[in-house]
Amino acid sequence: MTDSANLPLAGRIALVTGASRGIGRECALALAQAGAHVVALARTQGGLEVLDDKIRAVSGRPATLVPLDLTQGDGIDQLGLAIHERHGHLDILVHAAAILGGLSPISHIDPAAWDKAVAINLTATYRLLRSTERLLKAAPAGRALVFTSGRVARPKAFWGAYGATKAATEHLVRTWADELENTQVRAALIDPGAMRTKMRAEAMPGEDPDSLPDPAEIGPMIIELATAPLGQPDKPISFSAWKAAQGSSDH
């Protein structure tokens, strides 16, 4: 474990959604290792407990575990209140939770599946921004890092529910960031690209997962964005472009 005096996020409070697996889990681990106290949100208590063991191993400190389904808007409001009562502010929001919602022609999408994709991918984002805005404003430099998808710019057959909800999410985040332009709060949209995740395997079952980046590779990017002087989120930040820039700067 690293000396706390040398940790870039020492003392920061970070809320991570989708924290029990994939990209969300790796973001939570990276933030904890950088010194942040992680408030980890996911649907499954068991997955959160496994994460907590890993966070304790890399940081020596426990996380705050929040077993919550993001379709429960009142629960998101209660979480905001709990963070306010315990910490008084929120430094970092990393919103990684999402569902694919199935791949099918738009005319074949089951209405219940559509409603669930909208609820988790879009409405939950609105509820999170609504419930954390005052907490982020109370921080010296609040940061909201929201994951999106390249499917927004590159629509493809059968990805309608996922792509549409992510497109709406991008619009929501950009609008919100514009509203907060005169505050210290900044937002970023992140396009992780294809990664070795359960969602990717669900979408592309014949793909060799070893050909894809491990989600852990995105950790350093998240730490950088959590402290960067971000501008307006006019377009998503591409992980692959960021990684390529890191490689070129090493030479």
Structure notes:
- With 251 residues, the chain is α/β, with parallel strands linked by helices.
- The protein has a single domain, classed as NAD(P)-binding Rossmann-like Domain (Rossmann fold, 3-Layer(aba) Sandwich), CATH 3.40.50.
- The protein has 8 helices and 7 strands; from the N terminus they run E-H-E-H-E-H-E-H-E-H-E-H-H-E-H.
- The chain is globular.
- The mean pLDDT is 90.
Describe the structure using short key phrases.
single chain; alpha/beta; Rossmann fold; 13% strand
Radius of gyration, CA atoms, in whole angstroms: 17 Å
Instruction: List the secondary-structure elements in sequence, H or E.
Output: EHEHEHEHEHEHHEH
Tell me the CATH superfamily: NAD(P)-binding Rossmann-like Domain
In helices, the fraction of residues equals: 40-55%
Q: What structural class do the secondary elements suggest?
A: alpha/beta
- The share of residues in extended strands comes to 5-15%
Total separate domains: 1
Q: Please state the overall shape, judged from the principal axes of the Cα atoms.
A: globular
End-to-end C-alpha gap? 28 Å
CATH class equals Alpha Beta
Oligomer: single chain
Task: Give a quick summary of the entry.
By secondary structure, the chain is of the alpha/beta class.
Task: Give the SSE layout.
Blueprint: E1 13-17, H1 22-33, E2 37-42, H2 45-59, E3 64-67, H3 73-86, E4 92-95, H4 111-137, E5 143-147, H5 160-179, E6 186-191, H6 198-203, H7 219-227, E7 237-238, H8 239-249
Parallel strand pairs: 1-2, 1-4, 2-3, 4-5, 5-6, 6-7
Helix pairs in contact: 1-2, 1-7, 3-4, 4-5
